[in-house]
Amino acid sequence: VEYEAPGDLVFRRGGNEYRLIATAGANSSSFFIMMWDQTAGSETYEGMRYMRVTFPDDAAWTLDQEGWTVIDFNRAYNPPCVFTPHSVCALPPRENYLGLAVTAGEKKPANH
Asked: Taking the CB of residue 56, how many other CB atoms lie within 10 A of it?
């Protein structure tokens, strides 16, 4: 599967700047994020988590513009391959491996 990456979502935490490569196609209604963080394996699924992020502040926004949005890590969720061996999930790009612990969002299933 190939993804279009119109740019990065940039945020600050603890005085450090972090970036997530955002994917979105021409017909998308939000950004799709594949990410990994330091809770992987202990608190969250070891492979990755996914998240949707709304497009920047203007409903007329297009993929070639900049703007502000909210990255709500409470919305991070487990991909389908966590729940069944009959699913294949895309891995996050290396750039989306965050050097911080994202303790918000869906946790690792109890049987995992």
From this structure: 16
